[in-house]
Amino acid sequence: MDEFILALFGENDKLRMNTLYQILVGKKSASMLYYAYGHQLLNIVGIFPHLSKAEYEKIIQRLVNQKAVVILENELVRVKIIPSLFTQEPYCHLNHFRLKNSLTLWRMLQLFLCRLSYWPADYQGPVLENSPFYLLNVDQMIAQMDEEQKQKIHEELSHVFSQMPQDQADFLANTFSGKQISGKTFYQVLPEDLHSPFDICYTLACVERFWSYLMTHTELVLFQLFKPFILENYKQSMLVTRQYYKFGYDVEKIAQIRGLKEGTIIDHLIEWAILDDRFPFEDFQLLTQEETLLDYRYKDLVEENPEISFLQYRLSQIAILKGRDNYE
Fold first, then answer.
1. Three-state SS at 316
2. Could you tell me which residue ranges the Helicase Helix-turn-helix domain spans (predicted)?
């Protein structure tokens, strides 16, 4: 884990110690999401939900003892520089914030494909799952099948895997079971030189690369089958706020309709802006798009310009970051 933490710095010379912990465990807030987005850490939000604060602090202390980082005013300042996690295959394809349930989706896909290999005959294979969640949902998928869809699914799988490096495609494909094959566990097919937590991250990166491809090709049968479960990754309350906004309501009215605080609605809009490249920034009166705005605290800015709202301030910063990403 020590090396993993160092690999998260990337182009950042320092990271907030407490905020980094919130990112790793997925303790979500609008301010944490903005920080994660601005420091290229959004794709690992919630990657270690069971990491205790005590264990995290032990890791940081080890890094301090190794003189790999120093702590200044609750910020981790790196001393030892190693390659960024996000410039390496397959970790550059981690997409965990948008696909928190990626492994659940994969288990469902494994069961579905195994059942599909027997279809239209009755399933005579091994018991892969006992959970009603998987069994009932896969039953519904199989009930929709016809020969044309079955053929399309096989073609789509081949196509998606063809878009990945051979070793990653093989890693995933070897976990599938069917009428004439018995799949292996991720543990059995992981590269031998990986140690924790890179083994977990390798699995997540490959799986999330697969689902991310489907999310950008929504015409595929596979995406349509799994769409309801993919959408579960998005905060439902935020989606409701987004819908009301699209109906033409402003923050105050949405808060009244939903019985929520205006600050909560603002947080929803900020999360939407971070997640959606098609967010309607043009609807809002943005501030300057000069990068110097990224260095301003809202408290300091509003002292000079009291009329500036926090939503204006934060959306302007997100727009600058998105513009930077698009340019790069």
1. helix
2. 237-293
Mean pLDDT, range 252-280, rounded to an integer: 94
- In sequence order, which residues have a C-beta less than 8 Å from that of residue 125 and are 6 or more positions away? 114, 115, 117, 118, 177, 178, 179
Rg over alpha carbons for the chain, rounded to the nearest Å, is 22
b/e sequence 177-216, b meaning 16+ C-beta within 10 Å: beeeeebeebeeebeeeeeebbebbbbbbbbbbbbbbbbe
List beta partners, residue 14: 77
Q: What is the pTM assigned to this prediction? A: 0.89
**Token pair 């070793």 is at which residue?**
167
Which residue in 271, 267, 204 sits closest to 36, CA to CA? 271
pLDDT, tens digit (0-9, with 9 covering 90-100), for 3-44: 999 999 988 889 999 999 999 999 878 899 999 999 999 999
The CA dihedral of 11, 16, 18, 20, to the nearest 10 degrees, is: -10
Of the chain, the percentage scoring pLDDT greater than 90 comes to 78
- Asked whether the beta carbons of 138 and 119 are under 8 A apart, the reply is no
Which residues make beta-bridge pairs with 72?
A: 75
Nearest-angstrom CA–CA distance, 265 and 293 = 23
Q: Where are the alpha helices (DSSP H) in the chain?
A: 2-7, 17-25, 30-38, 53-65, 102-118, 132-143, 147-162, 166-173, 186-189, 198-215, 221-230, 236-246, 251-258, 262-275, 298-304, 310-327
d(CA 313, CA 289): 11
CA angle 53, 56, 59 (to 5 degrees): 155
Residue whose token pair is 């996690």: 85
Taking the C-alpha atoms of residue 161 and residue 174, their distance in angstroms, rounded to an integer, is 12
Contact between 94 and 36 under an 8 Å Cβ cutoff? The reply is: no
Check: CB of residue 201 under 8 Å from CB of residue 4.
yes
DSSP code at position 96 = T
Place of tokens 């069994």: 135
Cα-flanking dihedrals φ and ψ of residue 216, to 5°? -100, 5
